[in-house]
Design goal:
The protein is of the alpha+beta class and about 550 residues long. It folds into three domains: about 190 residues, Up-down Bundle (Multidrug efflux transporter AcrB transmembrane fold); about 100 residues, Gyrase A, domain 2 (2-Layer Sandwich), CATH 3.30.1360; about 150 residues, 2-Layer Sandwich (Gyrase A, domain 2), CATH 3.30.1360. It is built from 15 helices and 19 strands. It has a six-stranded mixed beta sheet. It has a four-stranded antiparallel beta sheet with strand order 7-8-2-18. The longest helix has about 55 residues.
Length: about 550
């Protein structure tokens, strides 16, 4: 038990030294280790990552958003109305219909020829296809209840509560993913993004000093589509209410052209975008370049080839940001958007397009900014508690267990270094509860040594030699300590799995601390004890 091969010794020291190397950047100045805006002097092969500080330690922004479920329902109904219009005209004979209306949770329209009712119901049947997700959830009911009146020719589609609930849940889940991608694009480390209730999302961004930018970046729906302009009537006529069927009036970004009349059906939508980057136009102005996937490139190329000489509008959240003329077919699947951008707004728009559109509008219900002063006070208080607890434990172990206590203290120092190294390597976020977890781990790490030394004292009093007493103490104490640490580790894993925010931060440091403390108490301290026993060969144990 106390005999280590040279290979085992090398592995143990390699683990400890690796932990030290990963922990070291946390005490080095940024000029040495490097940072977001500086290049450090450390060699590139050495670790240079530091522990991420949570919102409660370094400050930042806390926002609470509400997903607009009504807009989800409205979008579902408008899509159904648009699909119905297209299906009725998709093949011959064309079925004319008028009076498409979306009211409440219903879509209604009237057939010009009521005698075509059976054919119309057959045409629009795909609208009522049962969603695969509803089937998996055990709900085989179609999303709409279809009602028809053969005499008047009116057809009504009513959205079911089950379909609306499913759409709302999907909207919240997709919103969380889009928000995460948008914030990650900013380079922010370890944001907290989680669901609260049925339709709310909490967003915490540590270290972000401009919460308004975060709010604008997250809150913008960023649904981009490409539409042909409708020139069948003038803008004045459209503003007077004479909008042709299948067209709509949108606000324009150009002051000389405040409104544009566009075809409601998009040529291509933003779902086919695979990349967007800030760039510069030929005149040197900030712009946004974009690229479609294969499907989008084919559709965009076909649409531009068929409409050379016409204008098309680039619509972002129902507002035209640009309306260029199609001078020639755009067949490469890429293009550039010019719209009077600044460098920052071009970068933000490219982030929005890369992350994808939000499925619904988000409303800010709460916004809190945590100042850096609060974080500094928390760090200072936590550091003072950590130092006091560490010094008290070190002195206690030396006074009670002598040389063995000193070895336990060395293992305790190695434990803290390994914890900090692991937190840095994993880029985990350290919160104030996380500091509490480190302090708790220090006490737990010493507990293992106290149990071991208690068994050593007992064996030594029973007449065994110092070497045999120490070896037996480690062997007999191991099952008890391992069982205790395994049960605590299970609790820490549950905190990580089901906890959030401060609870999860506590679970992170607790789980890492349990693993490192078992290693230092059973492996590293035993190695140091064997060095002392074989070199000093003490006649009696100082305990």
């Amino acid at each position: 038990m106390l005999h280590f091969s040279k290979l085992k010794q090398a592995i143990i020291w390699l683990i400890v030294i690796t932990g030290l190397m990963f922990a070291l950047p946390n005490v080095l100045p940024e000029a040495v280790r490097g940072g977001p805006n500086t290049v450090g002097t450390l060699p590139s092969f050495l670790p240079n990552k530091t522990v991420n500080l949570g919102l409660d330690l370094q400050g930042g922004s806390h926002l609470l958003f509400e997903v607009d479920v009504d807009s989800v329902k409205q979008g579902k109904l408008e899509a159904a109305a648009d699909d119905a219009r297209q299906y009725l005209r998709s093949e011959k004979p064309i079925i004319p219909a008028t009076g498409f209306r979306v009211t409440g949770d219903k879509v209604s329209f009237r057939l010009a020829r009521p005698a075509q009712m059976d054919l119309a119901l057959e045409r629009i049947k795909p609208i009522n296809t049962v969603d695969q997700a509803l089937l998996l959830a055990g709900n085989a009911n179609p999303p709409f209840v279809m009602e028809s009146d053969p005499e008047s020719g009116r057809i009504t589609l009513t959205l079911t509560p089950e379909a609306l609930e499913k759409e709302a849940k999907d909207a919240v889940a997709r919103s969380i993913e889009v928000i995460r991608q948008r914030i990650d694009e900013l380079g922010t480390r370890e944001p907290t993004i989680q669901r609260q209730g049925d339709d709310r999302i909490i967003v915490q961004v540590p270290g972000e000093n401009d919460p308004e930018r975060i709010k604008d970046l997250i809150g913008q729906t960023a649904k981009m589509t490409f539409h042909l302009l409708d020139t069948s009537v003038s803008i004045g006529e459209a503003q007077a209410g004479r909008i042709p069927p299948g067209a709509k009036l949108v606000e324009g970004a150009n002051p000389s052209e405040p409104y544009l009349l566009i075809r409601r059906r998009p040529l291509v939508d933003g779902d086919d975008l695979v990349d967007s980057r800030p760039s510069f136009s030929q005149s040197g102005q900030p712009a946004v370049s974009f690229r479609f996937n294969g499907k989008g490139a084919r559709r965009f190329g076909k649409a531009t080839a068929e409409n050379v000489g016409r204008r098309f509008a680039i619509i972002l959240d129902n507002k035209a940001i640009s309306a260029p003329v199609i001078n020639s077919p755009i067949l490469g699947g890429s293009g550039i958007i010019e719209g009077g951008f600044t460098t920052e707004s071009a970068n933000d728009l490219s982030i929005l397009l890369r992350a994808g559109a939000l499925p619904a509008k988000l409303t800010v219900l709460e916004q809190r900014t945590v100042g850096a002063e609060l974080g500094a006070d928390s760090i200072r208080a936590g550091a003072v508690a950590l130092i006091i607890g560490f010094v008290a434990v070190v002195l206690f172990m030396v006074l009670v267990y002598g040389m063995l206590g000193l070895i336990a203290d060395a293992a305790l120092i190695a434990n803290v270094l390994l914890m900090m190294g692991a937190l840095s390597a994993l880029q985990a976020t350290l919160t104030l509860p996380g500091i509490a977890g480190i302090i708790l781990t220090i006490g737990m790490a010493v507990d293992a040594n106290v149990l071991i030394f208690g068994r050593v004292r007992e064996e030594y009093r029973n007449g065994k030699t110092p070497l045999n007493a120490v070896e037996t103490g480690y062997v007999k104490a191991r099952p008890t300590i391992l069982d205790a640490n395994v049960t605590t580790l299970i609790a820490a894993v549950l905190l990580l799995q089901f906890g959030s925010g401060p609870v999860k931060g506590f679970g992170v440091t607790l789980a890492i601390g349990i693993v490192t403390s078992v290693f230092t108490a059973f492996v590293f301290s035993r190695l140091l004890t064997s060095y002392w026993l074989f070199k000093a060969k003490p006649k009696k144990l100082p305990i």
